[in-house]
Amino acid sequence: MTARKELWVLLAMFVLPIVLGTMAYYYVVDEGVDSTVNYGELVQPIIATEQADIDLEGDNTLQGLWTLAYVDQSCDAACNTSINNIKDTRILMNADMRRLQRIAIIADGSGPNEIDEGLISATIIGDSVKTKLQAYPQRSIFLIDPLGNIMLHYQPNAFDIKRVLKDLKRLFKYSRIG
Question: Does residue 136 contact residue 155 with C-beta atoms inside 8 Å?
């Protein structure tokens, strides 16, 4: 074999796998694959809240902690189930449970049947936030980041605690705030 043929064979051995791998990624692997790994539905665009938009009981705030929020018009049996699911999710976070708070935003002011010490009651005051949340179905569960942005939405009838835990653990792993 001549030196020129050896050079081309050697070059093909190094370049061809890169070219084939790139083509496989863009034409075979990437088709039909969702670009996100979260189980909750991303709220797009993110709903930014201010301190004056949501009135929390006591001196609580949305700033500094991740928040699981249950939003509904009134509290019934489905409300109690969802609030218990949120409570179980927080407990299963183990050491990170102090980074997560729970709030119930009930429009008529009713609350769950059982007394829940860790649950914060809230009402939405801001009209812009209220109208943006009306685009989502009743009995929705939202994840609010430590800056007060509503970023993920979970369907309450399909609320899977294991999947929510995976989302939260991934967020807590990479988050430096909250």
Answer: no
Please, which pLDDT band fits residue 3 given cuts at 50, 70 and 90?
confident
Task: Provide CATH code, domain 41-174.
Answer: 3.40.30.10
In whole angstroms, what is the distance from residue 159 CA to residue 130 CA? 23
For the CA atoms of the chain, what is the radius of gyration?
23
Contact 52, 125 (CB under 8 A): yes
The Cα–Cα gap between 150 and 147 comes to 9
- Angstrom distances, CA of residue 16 to CA of 13, 19, 126: 6, 5, 58
Instruction: Write out pLDDT tens, residues 37-49.
Output: 788 899 989 999 9
Side-by-side strand order, sheet with 149-154: 41-48, 149-154, 140-144, 66-72, 100-106, 119-124, 54-56
C-alpha to C-alpha distance for 80 and 114, rounded to whole angstroms: 8
Q: Are 42 and 36 a contacting pair, CB within 8 Å?
A: yes
Indicate if the pLDDT at residue 65 is higher than 70.
yes
Note whether 53 and 161 are within 8 A (CB): no
The domain ranges of the chain are 1-33, 41-174
Looking at residue 176, what DSSP letter applies? S
The residue behind tokens 């729970």 is: 102
The pTM of this model reads 0.77
Per-residue confidence (pLDDT) for residue 26, from 0 to 100: 79
